[in-house]
Amino acid sequence: SLYVSEYFSQSAQKLSFYSWYGNAKLFHFRVPEDTVLLRWLLQASRGKGPECTNMEITVHFRYGAPPVINPLGTDFPANATVRPSYSISITLSSAVQNTTFVNVTTPAAGDWFIAAHLPEAAGRIEVKGFSTPCPYMFQADMFVLRLADMPVLEPGVAMPQTAVSPAKPLHVKVFIPKHTAVMRLELRNCVTSEQKACAVRVVLGSITLPQSFQRIITCVGKVNCSLTLDSPPWEKWLQIMVESLGAANASVSVEMLASFRACRPGSTSSFLNFSSLNQSQTGPSPGSAGAAGSPTPSTRETSRNASNQRSFCLQNQPVVREDLDVVSVRYRLLNGPSVPVNSLSPTLLLLNLNTGMDSGGSLVINLLLNKTSASLANATVVACVSAASPVLSLNATHNCSTAFFQGYPLRVSTSSPEATLIVLYPQTDDWFLSLQLICPKGQGECNAAEAKVTVFAYLTPCFNDCGQYGQCSLLRRHGYLYAGCSCKAGWGGWSCTDVTKAQSVSAQNLATLLLTLSNLMFLPAIAVAVYRYYLVEASVYTYTMFFSTFYHACDQPGVAVMCIMNYDTLQYCDFLGSVVSIWVTILCMSRVKKILKYVLFVLGTLLIAMSLQLDRRGVWNMMGPCLFALVIMIAAWVYHGVKRRHCYPPSWKRWVFYLLPGITLAFIAISVYAFMETNENYYYTHSIWHVLVASSVAFLLPPRDKHKKPWAWSQKLTCRYQICQNDREELYAVT
């Protein structure tokens, strides 16, 4: 045999602490056909700084779709099917780099996904620039070994093959045609080169993670042995591996024969069914009274066809796939939303999810039992959703499984007429929905009966659009798109349905009131500025108070939200007002000449606006203007002190009762803002920041100029007549 090795690599990604699915870094690979060995090379590394500590990286694997993970142990939505992913842990302790290998023999061909993430996020809000997070990098490479000339086993034709040794197993493949109900593999004339008892192990199928359903048969001392597969995957190549269990140097010769039993389908579709497609788009909505009432002519024709084709092993119902948007598909039945279901053969619906871009959403299937015969009050419609091939014997087996896939069962009856199934990240394949009528006293009671079941099936990026307290985000890894829910207001879970840490409505209202009303502490600062004739500064404080109030009213995660304009605009104005307020306050304290002060006001504001547009959350957008303004203030104070030969400001009362309290409040505010804020305490720690900053401004504003008279409202606000003083000077007196 000729083996060919191939190597696939993707760029490394920086890992994040986990709080929602968007924090997991996804890698997407495609395994070629005839692959007999797959080896993952996982490389994890970290930085060398003192902030880097021991870390555990979790890596998840899945075939056909991104892995469904739950590191936080939160709840999934009701009716969602969850199967745990296959995962390993990589520890970065004393070593800066860790290399791990994961081997998979006879892997399934197609899409494979790897997701990696760090442990749960601590929840602390870090200011960009105050701390340097440790970089943790992860890279996944894939090596494959495939057979370039894998023998093909033809149905009904015996093929002699030889397994040289246990170290070199024999690989063959067989193509399974559509509508195959049963596959039978026989091993004949098994002999060894040493004329001893034949001992071989036969493995059918490929490995898929997290669950693998390979079928294994061991033939020891038997001339012939066989294995039967029910509902093998349709229109796919099936790998067969034969391993010798004998001596190391002994070869085994065996003859293999594959045979199939086809399932003859009966279909109610015809070319004329497509003429009803446009009518159904403009007709009554699915599930309305008209759909459940008297049957239309096409429905009566469907019933007659179904009754005439009871001899078939299944009844196909035509389904149209309608692409709506990215990872958004609706499936529509040509013969109406209701399908006939009988007890003799299952009704089959094909749900096409094999485009390669459908596995990043959620498949939702809803069944509604419309009506049943009057004599079958206790009858039940059993359904099974499976991938690759349908379940064709629901009346005999209720385990809802095919040869290599464990399906998802559903059940509707008169006592429970509705059932819903949510498949999270369905694997790329053809999906089938099988329905059949089951009677409690035996199938003979149901031979002449027929049930009507309304089927709604669609693919959506996020189930229920993540609910009221979540946001559906479309994520991308190279050309692959998938969706995830980002929850807020303490809600959690895959679809933001976990209420374990959810905030109540009253808590949300309290948070909104604290974050907005705390900005009213700028009113004393505004009053002090106006009283001391600092009108420009008072205008800046008013601007900051206004936009900070309405930005936090719009920034709330829950239901207590009010946005007077675009969110991004409010955020930018809030950040701009905050930094400019600090800038003008420190410049006002420096007591420079008015013309110079106002020039610095304008130039500083323009530069701050530019820097915020470049990086809105950078710490130097605030620290830079503050430090530059402090340098100007210290230089001005030193100049005034040298000129007067006295400490400036000269009054000890100014230092004790104004400057020191104001500086203390400012330092406490910066400490709270930079080191104490977390996601859980944000609403009251940030409110404290508002109060402390606004209070410090009121203390730090300098007194008014000596030549400025205090506001005399009785003289400023005059009405009617005003007695004017004649200040004209008489230069000459005539006598």
UniProtKB/TrEMBL annotation:
Keyword list, A-Z: Cell membrane, Membrane, Transmembrane, Transmembrane helix
Subcellular localization, as worded in the UniProt entry: Cell membrane
GO cellular component terms listed in the entry, alphabetical order: plasma membrane
Pfam families, alphabetized: DUF3522
Gene: Tmem8a
Name assigned to this protein: TMM8A factor
Region entry Disordered, spans: 278-308
Topology in membrane: Multi-pass membrane protein
InterPro entries in alphabetical order: EGF, NGX6/PGAP6/MYMK
Domain of life: Eukaryota
